[in-house]
Amino acid sequence: MTTTRPGSLSALRLANQRRLLSALQDGRQISQAELARLTGLAPATVSGLVRDLADEGELVVGEGVANGRRSRMVQRAPGRLRYGIGMYLGRAHVEAVAGTEAGDLLAESSAELARGYAPDAAAEAVVALATEVRERAGLTPDQVFGVAVAVPAPVDVRTGTLTEPVILPALVGVPLRERLREALGRPVVVENDANLGALALTRRAGAGPGPLVYVKVATGIGAGVAVDGRLVRGAAGSAGEIGHLPLDPGLTTVCRCGRRGCLETVGSAESVRAALAGALRRDLATADVHDLIAAGHPVAVRVLEDAGEALGRGLGWLSMVVDPAEIVLGGPLTAAGDAWLGPVERGFRRAVLPGVARRTRITLSPLGESTEAVGALIASLMENSHIAVEMRTDKQDVNA
Amino acid sequence: MTTTRPGSLSALRLANQRRLLSALQDGRQISQAELARLTGLAPATVSGLVRDLADEGELVVGEGVANGRRSRMVQRAPGRLRYGIGMYLGRAHVEAVAGTEAGDLLAESSAELARGYAPDAAAEAVVALATEVRERAGLTPDQVFGVAVAVPAPVDVRTGTLTEPVILPALVGVPLRERLREALGRPVVVENDANLGALALTRRAGAGPGPLVYVKVATGIGAGVAVDGRLVRGAAGSAGEIGHLPLDPGLTTVCRCGRRGCLETVGSAESVRAALAGALRRDLATADVHDLIAAGHPVAVRVLEDAGEALGRGLGWLSMVVDPAEIVLGGPLTAAGDAWLGPVERGFRRAVLPGVARRTRITLSPLGESTEAVGALIASLMENSHIAVEMRTDKQDVNA
Hints:
homodimer, about 400 residues, alpha/beta, Arc Repressor Mutant, subunit A, Nucleotidyltransferase, domain 5, five-stranded mixed sheet, about 40% helix, WH_DNA-bd_sf (chains A, B)
């Protein structure tokens, strides 16, 4: 791992280089003046960085016309556009996308996993799918900048291991990051899926600096919290584990964590499916649930409303802790649209102080089902999240 | 307000200057080599900064001996040591301390306020006490670098106004910061008391970068959350308002916020006093409560245990959102020591996932009753918290 002296010129230079390269990541050719505007860097700084990056073969510089004037135009060198692999390892399947910094997806693939899979089987499936999607994208191993794997459980990103044995037992103690790194020969990041969703959303156009929370509502419920564009991971990756807020200890449903009344037992997509299956006394798959909701089946509507209100209350608790500007929801229930969002908002407004109720926006993820995978792709292309984490802790003295 | 182009050399220089000055804030004379070690800056960078700061009269440079070798020794110019005023404006009293960057308190004072005071009366009392403590410290108005006022309510630090009308109605809409700035002629910061407590604790020796939560338990309950040494204030200052987590909606106590079963109705110092007074059927002051607890009165012990367990559960909810490394408790109940801390820990361990229960340390504030005032003093001496906030939002691209 590269170590950079905090506060040094080389750290500043590295940060400015990244800022500049990320402004060029969509592959467009833009003028140096525009680059200065986009990055907030001084024109002289941009000139120097462009010259050095062109020498290193990262950028192509040419003459062109911008705003009617002859200008120095800059573009990412095509061969240097980074490729990454973003993956999602769930309870019953694994997904992979290969794509570029510009957000173009080159290949996608997924595979089923037997529920309750053995750790080795999961690691092998992840390696196999990463290899498959790389080959289908026409990439050599060396062309892949990095691989990031989203998992629906708390992760200590420093070690790439899972920290809460009760949440995804199959993978606890499995050195997933090392296995993948050895098999693929590339840098690997393992990170919580909701955190990666939040990462994806902080990078979208128009995202403000105010705290942003992404909530993935599926089998479980997890939140990714970003403050000033940075993920709040907690002491060991358990920040945002709101699926286990004890929303109603009086309820008798025992959660997989061993406690009762956890938010995920009453507010998750799985809780909607289970409650509906129970009420209708038949087996239901996720697709059946969507059909019933879309058809306005009264039992389905009521079950969805109750789950939405419960989720809203849980989000209210979260908001009393971090006071987000925006809460973005993801996962299969987003397909129900306002029929779900309305009850979530009602539950939320009742659970928070008036100022928070008035200010906080709750929306459905514009990235849909791809939110976590897009986040994993972004993370796979990042310079080195560990360096970023360490640089951060050295900035204490300039911030309150 | 000074604006600095983000990522520019001057922003880096300012950050490095602050880092260097803060290493010298205790007034000691130390060698340049030691300064480089303490700040993590390159020796050449330290040399340049010391030369420039000495030219500006901020530092005094001389020859001395460090580690047995002749060395260039550096010290803060005595006349340049900053003085600040830290204040606390509560529901029934106002406190002020005048002190130095080195943490020396020069004068302290406090005054009673009538409960339910009028806004003007509070503003006048704050101005009068700030003036009094300044004069008792022997300082001219110009010698005061700044004033910070801690208030037990959510504050929007950008405007210095209170954002939740139900929490401290007397001050809502009062331009406290402007009133003080006009009357005292110095920069003024108004900030939530628990946030300032967290600020004080992040600056103590040995504080790690892991999330730290300071919880002030008094009439109400508020938390200050610091991640990587930075305060999480939220979209409009309501982060950490855990006193209004709906811990038990089935309870009939109506909270001042208009809802039922809020944590502060069952876990605050005031709730202990009220429950004990009710059970013993007599009026009790705070001092009486402490006497009964110290004497081991069985009703007092039980009431304290119940309140501690309720607080612990609320802290568990908070921890599922931010996963702190350490939770530090403050306020009058700290005087009860383990008789309170034990039940808090029991309630906490039952409310969180096993990994969080195992890792999170819960302690009593080593700064005791002064935690908020020390935090206010630190804030009064800070360069400009608004600049810091703005610089922060520009660093998104170097962090994940």
